[in-house]
Write a structure and sequence with these properties.
Blueprint (H helix, E strand, L loop, with lengths): L3 E2 L6 H14 L3 H6 L4 H4 L1 E4 L2 E4 L7 H13 L2 H9 L26 E2 L2 E2 L1 H20 L12 E5 L6 H9 L9 E5 L4 H8 L7 E6 L6 H17 L7 H4 E5 L2 H7 L6 E3 L16 H7 L1 H20 L6 H15 L4 E6 L7 H13 L9 E2 L6 E3 L11 H6 L6 E8 L7 H18 L3 H6 L7 H4 L7 E8 L2 H22 L10 H15 L10 H14 L2
Helix pairs in contact: 1-4, 4-14, 7-12, 7-15, 12-13, 13-20, 14-20, 15-20, 21-22
This protein binds 6-O-phosphono-beta-D-fructofuranose (F6P).
Length: about 550
Amino acid sequence: MTTTNTSLIERSSWKALEEHGRQIQGKHLRSLFADDPQRGTRMTAEGVGIFLDYSKNRATDDTVRLLVRLSEESGLRARIDAMFGGEKINVTEKRAVLHTALRAPRGASIVVDGENVVPKVHAVLDKMAGFCTSVRSGVWKGHTGGRIRNVVNIGIGGSDLGPVMAYEALRHYSERNMTFRFVSNVDGTDFAEAVRDLNPAETLFIVSSKTFTTLETMTNAHTAREWLLRGLGGDAASVAKHFVAVSTNASEVSKFGIDTANMFEFWDWVGGRYSMESAIGLSTMLAVGSDHFMAMLKGFHEMDEHFRTAPFDRNLPVLMGLFALWYANFFGAQTVAVLPYDQYLKRFPAYLQQLTMESNGKHVTLDGKQTAYDTGAIYWGEPGTNGQHSFYQLIHQGTRLIPCDFIAFQRSLNTLGRHHEILMANVFAQSEALAFGKTADQVKQEGTPEWLVPHRVFEGNRPSNTILVDRLTPETLGKLVALYEHSVFTQGAIWGIDSFDQWGVELGKVLAQRIIPELENSGEPKLGHDSSTNNLIRRYRVRSRG
Ligand code: F6P
């Protein structure tokens, strides 16, 4: 029987937060603002060019003090030092967690198992830069002598979501004469649609997989090789000019038939969902060039340093993490909405879903005991203003509490008439409406008939953070991603869970491997599943062969 770990909820700061939470639950943001005219300017924090307004949270200065105390009592400082110091804090996989080393400046020293890993990080970055320059300039030729105009990244999870998100986010800085596509789903439609208008002679595949054994990626990679060979007359030598690999697993890369000279390495101390700035970012570097890529790493590093050194009550990722925990554990919130007001960040919420939920969707603590409290929330979102005409209704007037993160930029990358002012007015209007709402009296004063009044009331008291950044650049993208990475870390450290493993994805993988031959079997396989699964398999077998 699993025992429960209650140490977190027994801390004095936790108990104080429970008591404090009951008081705050009875307060409305209207009165918190009315009673404290400085609140909107005081409850803010700024670091490395990112401004965070957390005043529209259901919290006071005391809340922040208590949450900071909780983080201290939970050993957050020591956990941060352990991560940055290369300790094996991913205990279930016995690995260090050193995505921060991927963005450490040349010349820094971070030691893992007695070896300074920074030189090898920069050696790979240099190799990537050389390769990208040669492809972008046309020096790297395809098998038939033409230049590469299309890049297709094949990967899934962390080997896809970061590259897609970064490509979309940095499209403004990308080489517009090249086409970038991303194939992740094992559904053949994904591959078919990605390549249908591409010329194999001009196409480079990047097979991105930390393990190089992932079923979806390897299936797509084999299909890509067949497609290439079919298009180039079947000459196996063409693979060398049209396939490169990004992996930690050189032997599997060789087995696939990719020369390890065309492999870009990373290491087991880089988690898949923390890998977009490793060689997994090869497609990003091909799109934006190595200078922009290095600027993104600089942004990551600046946020790392802020997280490592800033006092917790002014530390952006710590504050973000603490508020997420506040709502998850003391308000029963199930979700967090991430609402970027920038079209280039359209894949940012999808990227954050893996980062947050694969990291903190855990029900046991580091010592294998059941948590006595909720852990990671469900993250979701869409770029504003589209969400406003869709799901915001529920955030404003539904019955659930949904804390929101608004992300916006002072300056647009596409200045078109009044667009940016209208966009920004919507950011500020939404957080204002969520916080303050509209009372029945206000609705009545507008002449609304009595029967309609309840429908038009906005209760308000819906919390949000607003993150304002100057401009979306490679550097600010790095800062934003690191902000959320370290917010996830803060939450996981307090909950005492392993934010860096992902055992929850294993069972489905194993069962799929068992079912594949049952679907492909030309005879009548003996099925040993439950009655529902057996029936679904039989029905599929009968109807797919008609
Ligand atoms: O789905 C689990 C997972 O291991 C993720 O953590 C990872 O990002 C993804 O699969 C892809 O793994 P790989 O890069 O090894 O193909």
